[in-house]
Amino acid sequence: MADEAMDRIAAVRMPSIHGLDLVAKGQLMVRATNREAPFFENDYEAQAKFAEILKTKDLAWKEVDKGWKIYEPLPQEAEEAAVWKQFLLEWDAWKKGEAAIDETIRSLAANRTPAGQKKLFETLYGQFESQKKPFDVANASIERLVSMNEGYALADQKRGDEAIVLSRRVMFACAAVALAIVLLIALY
Hints:
mainly alpha; 4 helices; 88% helix; rod-shaped
């Protein structure tokens, strides 16, 4: 029982937390990288800088993918699976908005006119605003999944500790019975 609990912590809970953490960090990195674009709003020769923002976002998405590949194949508790299912919908909504932001930044990298850049930034700021809620909702679900896995790990640890205590008690009881039998035999 103790071995099973510790194995579950090592094989499921810790990797789950690690994978979810990579997804969350990647999501934050995507958002932070988006926020670099406004630094170049009035730089009409910043096409290469916008292209670099997209490259940095690609790195962030790779972190997300790495975390996703760690977490998704792992077994989930029923409650966790329900939260994950809801999270997938939230994530898709957020990711769809991010694709639109990427397209706007791609347009900024290709743009050659100040008027075009101003219009693209109006679009970009609107996209930033519309992405606040989907980001917050998806991020809250990731945090909830991490908290759930931390709770499951603590419960597994408690079960493991209880199994160890029970094993010790059984061992001491058996030793006491054996000692009593030996003493009775010696007295007899």
